[in-house]
Amino acid sequence: MFVLLSGLLLKPYAALYATLLHLMLKLIFAGASAVLSPSFGFVLAFIPAAVLLAYLTKRRGDSSLQKMINVAAVSLLTYLIGLPYMALILRYVSGQVMSLQSILFSGMLIFLPGDVLKIVLALTLERRLRPVLSV
Questions:
Q1: What is the pLDDT of residue 61?
Q2: Which of 4, 43, 95, 129 is most deeply buried (CB count within 10 A of its CB)?
Q3: 82, 45 Cβ separation under 8 angstroms
Q4: Cα Rg of the chain (Å, integer)
Q5: DSSP letter assigned to residue 11
Q6: CB of 84 within 8 A of CB of 45?
Q7: Does the domain spanning 2-133 belong to CATH 1.10.1760.20?
């Protein structure tokens, strides 16, 4: 949700700095071992996802439909970066060889309903926060 709201409400550089700060805080509080977590690839993916969403929103994001398409696209980008990282960590760090189906199920499919809910909530919050924040 943080990534979506950063991308929807901030300019690209501000979204970059916000997600870099998020990454640094995660590393500080979770420790360097977080890099070896299968989910860390998704955290890394937040950076380009937020920046891309901020760029797309700034360039062509006034309509609700366009914002929905933009958010869906960056959600896909998160999976495109996070899933291969997850597979590599599971295989080479944890020693678990998983099929593509297992990776897709455990790293994406079970999260899709929640992602759809986050997209709807982020778009609703963005519409209400934008006038208050004057962005």
A1: 66
A2: 4
A3: yes
A4: 16
A5: -
A6: no
A7: yes
